[in-house]
Design goal:
The protein is an all-beta fold. Helices cover 0% and strands 43% of the residues. A hairpin with a 2-residue loop joins strand 4 (55-64) and strand 5.
Length: 129
């Protein structure tokens, strides 16, 4: 199963943005282990070059009954981590969530320091099997 979302633009230093990727269901049970999280920028996307302090963190979270249960994958655009058009970037899985039916998977953009502007269209996919 793939849960995905397309992220809106975010101004450097802007407020956190959250996009829902989907609701976990065992109806079409294929598994409950998060195997991969990938980010891909669309064609023509202006490259975001990683920076030591003024950057952005992209986190993938698990919600249950309206509350955060865990942040299970996270990527910060630090030095050496860039986002460019049609270049997939793996997001490290930091903790394996225990998904239950009805859990919501979302993606949070958080600006660090002065932050970095992000263009619209980053595609985030969470693979569960």
């Amino acid at each position: 199963m793939i849960y995905s979302t397309t992220l809106p633009a975010q101004a450097a230093g802007g407020a956190d943005l959250i996009a829902v990727a989907g609701v976990y269901s065992q109806e079409f049970y294929s598994g409950d282990t998060v195997t991969d999280v990938e980010i891909v920028a669309p064609a023509g996307y202006s490259t975001v070059v990683g920076a030591a302090t003024n950057n952005v963190t992209i986190s993938v979270r698990q919600f249950r009954a309206g509350a955060v249960v865990s942040t299970f994958a996270s990527l910060t655009t630090t030095t050496g981590v860039s986002l460019s058009a049609e270049g997939p970037v793996s997001v490290p899985i930091t903790a394996q969530p225990i998904l239950l039916p009805g859990d919501v998977i979302d993606v949070r953009l958080h600006q660090n320091g002065n932050g970095q502007a992000l263009g619209a269209g980053l595609f985030v996919a969470v693979y569960v099997s």
